Amino acid sequence: MAPFCVRCLFRRNYIKRFKSQSKNVKKHKKGGIKNIQAKYEKLASDVVEISAERQNIREEQRRVREKFEGIANECEELKRETRIVVQQTARTQIKLALMFQIVKASEQADHATVSTLTHLLREIVKRENEERQASDDS
Questions:
Q1: Tens digits of residue pLDDT in 98-113
Q2: CA distances (Å), origin 74, targets 30, 56, 86, 87, 138
Q3: From the record, what ranges are coiled-coil (predicted)?
């Protein structure tokens, strides 16, 4: 009969140990659920925070893109204005050269050359006025 009693003792100890372990597991599982919920809430708040940061980044990118477009437009406008100034300078140089040639031809009493150069100068001025009027109408 002794062996059966020893078995009972082992069995009782085993059952006690199993019950205490299961209680620890239950406590651990409950804490684990709370821990998981806390992690989930933290992740959810992180996702919201990241989403807000991404929105801010998109907004900043849009602002930067608009600034670059504005700068590009200003650059194109400056190029156009520079081209106009260069053209006006070239025309002024041509008109000055024609005037100088007219003065030289009139000093030499070359009336045919003076007439031709004067006519050419008038045509240039007439074209400039027409272009100016066309650009003012636009």
A1: 999 999 999 999 899 9
A2: 66, 27, 18, 20, 20
A3: 33-81
